[in-house]
Amino acid sequence: MKLKAGIIVFLGTNCDRDAKSALDSLGFKTEFIFHTEKNLKKYDLIVLPGGFSFGDYIRAGRLAKLSPAVLAIKDLKNKGFKGFILGICNGFQILTESGLLPGALIENKDTKFISQDEPLIFNGDEISLPIAHKEGCFWADSDTVKQIEEKNMAFLRYKNNPNGSINNIAGLYDRENKIMGLMPHPERAVMKECAPNGSLDGVKVFNFIKEEILK
Fold first, then answer.
1. Burial of residue 83, with CB atoms counted within 10 A of its CB: 0-12 exposed, 13-18 middle, 19 or more buried
2. Coil, helix or strand for 56?
3. Which of 4, 15, 78, 212 is deepest in the core (most CB within 10 A)?
């Protein structure tokens, strides 16, 4: 049986098709979900993809967190939803803005947009994934950072920390609630057509997610 993945599409989303192509190629049964949808119970994986939801007005993810689909995710988690939630880039920003993951994504240390392949440490192994963001610097207060480290939530870290993130954090995984957010783009590192000269290490990330869903 194929795992069913729903990809939420916000106004301004631009990585929804990338995510669908990657998940399709890895054996998921995928479909798009408009941001006004409230019924998300049927999905094994719900993806908040990259892009510029609602133009990133006010702050990245700030408006999207109020959308019916995101409010439905919060309601599902409060009711013991067993599915997996994944936020990529803008999706990670939405997860932090909505309180589904701790901390915040703020403007990069040099205030510039960064688009490049980046070496990362993924669960102890070095991989390479593309990044593309201006508000990707992870920040949290000291108490929150302590909790993140104690709960082993930082599953992905920058090797060279291009944006100034605290503790080199590139991605968080709330294992208890199966909520994951990361700034790099694994969906752009799955097929050769999308990464002719780059790595295909995105497969490792999605395979890990698949294993976590099936636990």
1. buried
2. helix
3. 15
Catalytic residue among 35, 133, 187, 194: 187
d(CA 7, CA 82): 17
Active site residue 185: yes
Contact between 189 and 200 under an 8 Å Cβ cutoff? The reply is yes
* Local structure of 211: helix, strand or coil: helix
Do 74 and 100 meet the contact criterion of CB atoms below 8 Å apart? yes
Distance separating alpha carbons of residues 103 and 95, to the nearest angstrom:
10
How is residue 160 written in tokens? 């060279």
Write down the catalytic residue from 89, 133, 135, 137: 89
Q: Return d(Cα 77, Cα 178) in angstroms, integer.
A: 9
Asked if 101 contacts 92 with a C-beta cutoff of 8 angstroms, the reply is yes
* pLDDT, tens digit (0-9, with 9 covering 90-100), for 52-108: 999 888 888 999 999 999 999 999 988 888 899 999 999 999 999 999 999 999 999
Establish whether 187 is a catalytic residue. yes
Share above pLDDT 90 across residues of the chain, in percent, rounded to a whole number? 87
